[in-house]
Structure formats: C-alpha cells, structure tokens
Amino acid sequence: MLFNSYGFIFVFLPLTLLAFHGFTAQGFYRPAFAVLTLASLIFYAWWSVTGLALLLVLIVCNYALTRLLIASRIARPWRAKMILIAALAFNLGVLGYFKYRNFFIANVDMAFGLKWPPGVPFLPLGISFFTFQKIALLVDAYKGKVARIGWLDYGLFVSFFPQLIAGPIVHHSELMPQFHTRRALTAQQIAQGAAIFAIGLAKKVLLADTLSRFVGPVFNAAAAAHPISFGNGWAAALAYTLQLYFDFSGYTDMAIGAALLFGIRLPLNFASPYKAASIIDFWRRWHMTLSRFLRDYLYIPLGGNRHGEARRYLNLFLTMLLGGIWHGAGWTFVLWGALQGAYLAINHLWRAATGDRMSAHMRLIGPAMTFVCVVAGWVVFRAADIDAAGTMLRAMAGLGARGAAPVIDSARTMSLVLPLLALVWLAPNTQELTDYSPVKQQPAPARRFAIPEWGAGRAAAVGALFALSVLSLSKVTEFIYFQF
User: Fold this and answer.
1) Which of 172, 287, 327, 348 is catalytic?
2) Is the pTM of the predicted complex or chain greater than 0.85?
C-alpha cells in the first residue's frame, strides 16, 4: 500500500485513525496499541504476505534477544555482550542474505564461472530501514537506555506504519514515550499533520513523478551505451537531483504528517539540504536520521576522531562507504559511498587547514561547489552501472560524443528544472511552512508561515493543493527509496 494511493488516503488511514482514537478516547490504550500494530502489519502485508511472514519472524526473534539482553546487562555483562554480538550477526546476516546474496553470486560467477544457483527470489520491502531500527534498539538496550519493553510495545515500535518502509529511522526513546503519554489530539495537530501530509503528497505526485519523465530516458540511453549530449546530461542529472529530493522528502513529509494525526512527532529527515554550504553541512541536512545512525552506530564505534586525524578520515571514509552499500547491492552504490567518504574527508581536511575561515567569495562559491559535487554523486547513484555513470559524467564534462542525438528536449526540461531549483534554494521548507518540530515541550514563537496565521485563505490553498494532487493520481508510482 502506498501513501500516494486512494486506498491509503481514503480508506486505510481514516479507518485506522477512527479505531485508534476511538479506543484512546475511552482510556483503552493497550487495545489502541494492538489495533495500530495490527493495522501496521496489514499495511505491510498489502505488499507481500511472504514479506510479512519474514517481518514477524524477525520481530519475534529480536524481541526475545532484546529481553535476554536487558535481563543480562547488569547481572551478567559478558553474557549481554555475547547476546548483542549474536543479535547483530543475526540481523546483518538476514539483511545480507536477502539484499546482497544475488549481487555476491553474480560477481563470483563473473569472476570464476562457478555457476552457483540463483539467489533469493525477492527483496523484502523496507528491510534496510527496519533492520537498522532493530539494531538501534538492541544497542540502546545494551547501553542501558532501554530498561524494559513489553511485546506489544516492541511490536508497535518496529512496525509503526508511517515510518516502517522508508523511515525516518527512530529511537525507542523518541517514539514509545509519546504513545505512553497520551494527550487529546488538538485541532492544531490535525491541521498541522494534514498540511504536512498534503505538502508531501504534492511533492511526490506533482513534482517528483513529473520530473521522472525526463530522467528515465536519458539514464536508460546511457545504460544502453548510447552517446549523451552535454545538454541532455545536465538536464537529466538536475532533473534527477530534484526528483530524488521531492520523492524522498515527500515520503518523509507524508510519514511525519500521518504520524502527527496519531499524536506522534517523528524526527526530521530533511532541512533544505540543497542550501548546504559544504558536504559536511549537506549530510547534516540530508536523510538526517540515517546520518545520525551511521554516526552513532558505525563511525563512533569505529573510533570516531579519538585516534588521530589519519584514523578519523579513514573512519569517515569507511562509514560512508558502508552507508553507500546499505543503499543497494551494486557497484554504483559502492562507488557513491566511496565518493561521499572522499568528499567528507577532503572537506574536513580543508577545515583543518583553514580553521573554517572563509572569505566572502568562498562563502558564495562553497554552496555552488557543494551542489555540483552532490549532483555528480547522484548521477553515480542513479546510473544502472559504472559504465553508464561514466557516460553521463563525460557528457556533463563536455567530453561526450559530438553531435549526439538528443534523447529529451533539454530546453523544455530546464524550463521545469530551473524554477524548481529556485524553489528549493529560496523557499521555506516544510517544517518552516508548518511550524513543525520533532518535540513540542512548549509553544514555539509564531512564525511568518505558521499555521495559526494561515486563516481561511491559506487553509484553502492547502486544500486545493491536496485536491490537485489527488486528482493527479492517475498512475500510482512507488517511492524511489522503496528500492533500498
């Protein structure tokens, strides 16, 4: 089931909201949790009953391992450490088997001609995201950040449907206390959640899906070894840069908006990443919960910056390399991760050499250089293989075949791309438009674009945006990050 489908918008989400809030209004919180957990499993089963069976097995096994780990942490720390190692090996082994076995077999067969049997027939939806979430909980339990957890709480935590498939990746401490501290849903929350969901839906349906029409033909031509013109190369690369952003941030907006309708605030995942002044800044703004996970559960355990500068840069490189591999089983993802690791290492070296002091002209050049580096990375990320990525990058560098026949109308594509670039560079982002923050401990000061100031006119504008998006759902398309 997709967020951008009639079934989800008009059937699944309303019925789940009615059931959940119906129970909580009467004080029946445990039945409400059970209903929401069941609804989340139905949401996942809509894709594949086989995938649901695997998810349930992983939930049962990880719950048992988490309980054992919590029980052993103080009395038998050595046993807790062994349980953690076994649990991590189990989860990473399952992820590796389903996501990387085919890639491994194909490369071994290519190198040695062993003719191994075919690999696994399917990739469970969202396996990378829910595996990381389970790993985060296991490590947090080992560190004493989770004192106890019941089976229903665990099931709800790992299956909560707004962020089950493609994040944001959340910690137990961010999600479950909100369920246990129930407050009446306010009109402000409903308006805010609906507005965020509508903005995300518009990003996906009206922008990302429209841009995809200009991306596929050029990248497919590159994959078929057809020459790509300079104009087509840049037009398709920039179109994909925007498509990926609107598609993934649109999903995240819809996840945050849907969760807010249940009274739950999910963490942010995007903060205007294409406004970044450096690659370091970019990774603080793009896919923020993944960056946080990689920092806390990979970079720091590798040693972080505690063992000298050379080790620090190596750890940065390895972290991003593994982050690239996490995205997909292919050499393009390996190369993309290595490229991001090199970018970050160079950026930190520059900061160390200059003390992060930048002249006025460098403050102008920095964002432009960062954006070009990001675009080049996305070309590798999107390409079917290394050769196709090379074809695209050579064309963008003006080194492609002369007189290559255009695959798309570059001028028409850029007439869409340039206004959208201006939108992401100059306009407020979703959280600024809606005054959303992950945790609301006290009322935030009013902002220019905050919902309380909208009035009937701006509320009508959001309603019109939602209606236009719904009317444009002639073809329901998957989100790009569903592939990972």
Assistant:
1) 327
2) yes
